[in-house]
Each structure stands twice: as C-alpha cells, then as structure tokens.
Design brief:
Helix content: 25-40%
CATH class of the largest domain: Alpha Beta
Shape: globular
Number of helices: 12
Mean pLDDT: 93
Strand content: 25-35%
Radius of gyration: 29 Å
Structural class: alpha+beta
Number of strands: 21
Distance between the termini: 87 Å
CATH architecture of the largest domain: Alpha-Beta Complex
Low-confidence stretches: none
Length: 493
C-alpha cells in the first residue's frame, strides 16, 4: 500500500468531552493524503470509543493503545507506526484548522526545509483568542530561515503547530521524554538541528483552554509536581543549548525568567500562604539548579523587579518574595536618587536598604531603566505659528514632577555656526504644546528634554507624514528628516 504524504500522531487521555471535535477537524483537512494515528494512553472515560468509531468510518484513522505512560511515550509509539513523508502532532482536546496541513506540507514541498510552523490561537469560553506566547512570532512569513538567524523562534516550543520532514526526525533520532512539558526539549532541539525552517503567518492550530473536565497541564502549572516537571524540562533545554548554541541559551534563559519562573514564584507564594513548608522546600530545591544555570549577562540586564525576585527565589526568602510581589501588584513604586559622582536611581521596593535582610542595593538599581519616552501627537498651524503637540516623560519617574523643555537647532543663514532657540511650551504632566514663530531662514531640527528627580534626558522629536500640516505661513514648512525626524524649514524671502 502506498505510504501517505503526512502522518499525524494524536495521543489522548481522558478527553472524552473534546476528542470528537478534534477528530472531526482532522477528518475535514483539505490535505487528504494523510494517516491519523490515534494513541489511547490508557483512557478510562470512554474517549477510546469515539476514536474507534472514527477509525471504523474512515480508513485514514487507526487506533493504538498503551497503558497510561504520558503524552511523550504515547507520541513515540505513534511515530514508530508512522509511514508518511512528513510528520505532525495534535493533542486530543485541540482543534486543527482545515487548511493547516495543506499549508504546512505545501510550504515544505516548495522550500525543502525540515520544519514548517505557523500561528496559534487559544480556544476559550469566549471563542478564539490570540495566544500570548505566539502573538508576535508569526506575523511575517519567511522561507528557509533558522533559529540562529531568527532567534525569536526560541519561543516556539511546542510540536503541534508544525509539520516535520520525517527523514529529518529519524536522522536526528528525536524522541519525546517521559513526564509533562515533554514537547519543549524536542521542539527546541529540532529548531537548532534543522537545516532550515519555514514560518507561516497563517493560524494552523487551535489550543484549548479547558473549561470543563480535568484541567490541562498548563492549567495546573502552580501545582508542586507540575512545577517540578516544568523545571526539569527547562533544565534539559538549558544543558542542550549550553553545549550546542550558547548565544541561544541566553535568549532561552530570558524567556525562562520572564515566563516560566513566574509560575514557580506563584507556586512559592501559594505554598507560603497555605503554610506548606514541605512544598516550599521542594520548590526551592527544584528551581535552584535552573536559576544557577541562567546566563549571568542576561540576568544583569533584567529589570530591577525581576532581578530582585530572582534573588529572593534563589535565596529561599519566601516571605520577602511574597511581600515584593504583593507590593508590585498593589502599590506604586517610588524612585529615589542616591550619590552624586555619579548619581544612581533606585526603586524603593520592600526591604530596600534593610540591612537586616542583607539584600544587595544593586538589585534595586533602575538607572538603566530610566528611558526617555518622546512622542509627537500632532503638528499644526495656528495664527501663523507652528505648534508641535506631544508627550515626553522619563520611564519610572513621576511625570507630574517633571519639567519639559523644547527647542530647535540649526544652521541659520543669518548666523555662523549652530544656533539653538528655546521654544515657549505649555506643559500638563507629560503632555506639551510648543510654539515656533519668527525663526531665521534655515533647516531646524526639533528637540525635547525632560528633567525629573535629578535625571535629565533629551532627544530629537520624530513625526510621521500624516502628522505634518498642510499650508501655513509662506516660506515655512514642517518636513521629515532622516529616520522620520521632525524638521522645520524656513526659506529666505
């Protein structure tokens, strides 16, 4: 019998309320040269009956069964029975859009890449919504790219939004481990090992957020056993990347801190509130090697809030961690200045300069986070004057206490050298309106400065073509310079 073009492996376990919708979506695929290998991982809820009914009606479906061992071994069993040129995976409680496999396989047929991947939406009680993990990743399509040249793919760590070339899978002897989060190490390793990867901007998978029945793995992510499984998976990826691609490990570690460890911290706070001392010790024990393996340069570049919480997590300071997280949720942090040569600025989170705790001051340092934010809202003519409206503030500093100054710089024809003219400006918090009138002929760039709490930052103002006014005083116009910078051009009479 001729081998199919695509094999789709579908492990399932106690998803009787969802499996029919999943299998219906597979049967409706516009790519028809497919075999669907359904692996019953010891279900006890009758879901196997639905699977067998599909197999009886459609010869492309077949059912395998094993005692409950988890999704990894179930997928491995299905792969051993797969005969297609290409290989894909779906979970029994999810849904695959009808053109997904046609698009993914079609891309690989044209490009010759080893992997094709696409966008994801979440199935919720309110309908389909974007997935936070994938929202920005699949905006632009690309053929024959790679994680080394597009490192954002480090965030693409699931296997079910992809089609793999089967020969590539066998060449590298890819295999799912036991336990939860089994797809993360496989997905990342495949990205690194692939010759090239295709990125599709179409949505190719609908990932369910369960609202009935047993909670999914991701919905139980603060349970201690779940945290242990997650961190074990992350450690495997850290070790692989440390050996094969250290610069990608830095990107992966950044995602671990910003995404995965927040669930660990949630679990620590829950255990603290429930006075579950044994759970706290288990959590601290399991997360310590993961934190110690984080790239030091990546950690140094984190915002102060994350550096502080990471320190408290690593040093088993559960009550302090709980207080800092509560403060960040409920309070507005103040930024204080210390020293003068040079001055530094610190976020006054709980326990700042509390010597009894021994928490280093540098964890509170936000000097590098004090970034000038300047935005031009509108450029217009009024009474023969050019008005520039916008917003300017320093991130983290109180805009109500800031002072905004606007000026223009240029080489006017009437004077030698560079001239600087401060413009009258009205300010309301971060908002300002500056007026330009009576300027000598020449080409003038527009600048803004914000001073607050001893910090002083300045920048050129930018604009877009749609913000530029039409008409105005004869011989004067607003234009765009390099990189979209706002320029005032005054011509000679």
């Amino acid at each position: 019998m001729k081998a199919p073009l695509l094999s789709v492996v579908v492990p399932f376990y106690n998803v009787v309320g969802y499996i029919e919708e999943c299998l219906t979506s597979l049967a409706a695929q516009t790519l028809t040269d497919v075999e669907f290998i359904l692996v019953d991982d010891g279900s006890m809820d009758g879901g196997d009956v639905t699977a067998k009914e599909f197999a009886a009606r459609d010869s492309r479906f077949r059912v395998l069964r094993q005692d409950n061992q988890g999704p990894g071994p179930a997928r491995n069993l299905g792969i051993r029975h797969a005969s297609g040129t290409y290989l894909a995976f779906a979970d029994g409680d999810d849904v695959v859009p009808e053109k997904a496999y046609e698009l993914l396989v079609g891309s690989l047929e044209e490009s010759g890449s080893d992997i094709a991947c696409g966008g994801v939406r979440r199935i919720t009680s309110d309908g389909l919504v974007p997935s936070a993990m994938y929202a920005k990743l699949f905006r632009k399509p690309a053929r024959r790219t790679h994680i080394e040249t597009f490192p954002d793919l480090i965030r693409d760590r699931t296997v079910w939004n992809k089609v793999y070339r089967h020969s590539f899978w066998e060449e590298h002897r890819l295999e799912f481990p036991r336990g939860l989060y089994e797809d993360v190490p496989v997905a990342i390793a495949a990205h690194v090992l692939a010759g090239s990867v295709d990125i599709l901007n179409e949505v190719v998978y609908h990932w369910r957020l369960r609202d009935t029945g047993a909670a999914s793995t991701t919905q139980r992510r603060t349970e201690v056993a779940n945290v242990e499984e997650r961190v074990a998976s992350l450690r495997g990826v850290q070790a692989f990347l440390a050996e094969r691609s250290p610069h990608l490990k830095r990107d992966f570690d950044d995602m671990v801190v910003s995404w995965d460890l927040k669930f660990v911290k949630d679990a620590v706070v829950e255990a603290l509130e429930e006075e579950a001392g044994e759970d706290l010790e288990r959590l601290f024990d399991v997360v310590a090697p993961c934190v110690e393996a984080l790239d030091p340069m990546m950690v140094a570049g984190l915002p102060a809030s994350r550096r502080l919480e990471l320190y408290l997590l690593h040093h088993r300071m559960a009550s302090e961690l709980g207080e800092v997280r509560r403060f960040r949720r409920d309070e507005e942090v103040k930024v204080v200045r210390r020293g003068s040569k040079p001055p530094r600025w610190y976020a006054a989170y709980p326990f700042f300069r509390d010597r009894s705790r021994g928490i280093p001051d540098h964890l509170y340092d936000v000097t590098q986070e004090l970034i000038l934010r300047v935005h031009t809202d509108r450029v217009r003519w009024s009474g023969g004057r050019l008005l520039v409206e916008g917003q300017a503030s320093i991130k983290r500093l109180d805009e109500r206490q800031s002072r905004i100054k606007v000026w223009i710089e240029g080489k006017g024809k009437a004077k030698k050298g560079t001239s600087r003219i401060v413009l009258p400006a009205r300010q309301d918090g971060a908002r300002f309106v500056a007026e330009i009138e009576g300027v000598a002929p020449g080409r003038w760039s527009v600048h803004a400065e914000v001073a607050a709490n001893g910090m002083r930052l300045s920048s050129l103002l930018g604009a877009s073509p749609r913000q530029l006014p039409k008409g105005g005083r004869a011989g004067v116009r607003a234009a765009l310079g390099k990189d979209g910078r706002l320029v005032v051009v005054v011509q000679s009479d």
